[in-house]
Specification:
This protein is mostly beta strands. The chain has no helices and four strands. Belongs to the bacterial ribosomal protein bL33 family.
Length: about 50
């Protein structure tokens, strides 16, 4: 059985650049600072569901 995937979206431009494995143990959305290739800089990325 395949793992469920969740996308990480850039908070500035909204593009979904990264995917991570879904974890039901997380109570709130994951926020990490990642590089956005569309913005050209490091921005906050939020977990989308």
């Amino acid at each position: 059985m395949a793992q469920k995937k969740v996308a990480l979206a850039c908070s500035v431009c909204g593009s979904r650049n990264y995917t991570i494995a879904y974890s039901p143990n997380r109570t709130h959305r994951l926020e990490v600072k990642k590089f956005c290739k569309h913005c050209g800089k490091y921005t906050m990325h939020q977990e989308t569901r």
